[in-house]
Fold Ribose-5-phosphate isomerase A.
Amino acid sequence: MTQDELKQAVAKAAVDYIAPKLERSSIVGVGTGSTANFFIDYLAQYKDDFGGAVASSEATAERLKKHGIQVYDLNSISEMEFYVDGADETNEHLELIKGGGGALTREKIVAAVAKTFICIADESKQVGILGDFPLPVEVIPMARSHVGREIVKLGGDPVYRDGVTTDNGNIIIDIHHLDISRPVQVEEQLNNIVGVVTNGLFARRPADLLLLGTSEGVKTIS
Ligand code: 5RP
């Protein structure tokens, strides 16, 4: 199976998992990226059976609306059962690196609100120790050099993602070669750097359920 076919399989599995649990008032949190896009396309067939969605990016909001799915501002939502999103890497504890698409801040906010975070990923994303994928950090533009220097002190190599502005008007620094053998600690250290808005480690709030696309089928890991 190609990587795209694996992504489609997990996207469909996520829809099959949540659809029977959705009520007419349910709001679904929706992530960003190619796997999340497949999820949106499958979810659309149930658009009359649930209340609508909260999007983790402008791109996702646009795709949801194109399908006729109502998109809500997170501030108007009091409860969200599910957040479904892809990942750049996952370890066995369902701790993740996210933000390859630059949407990490809104993704982390929506994940924080949801009762159940379902991660959908193809098997290439499963790793022993996080960190081969450069860790994205969203940074206030004027803090770029300061944050870069602090990242070097932590042992990482910061690389400015040229030409990218996030939906929140900020920049992205990707950290290469960082030791992430203790993800919760690294997430907190990065959060403590002044000028960092969010980092792409989802360890303090990992996924609750991983639907992993493999050549033997979709594996459910919790
Ligand atoms: C976007 C993300 C995505 O979930 C991550 O980059 C995976 O993307 P894809 O599903 O295209 O492989 O975190 O910010």
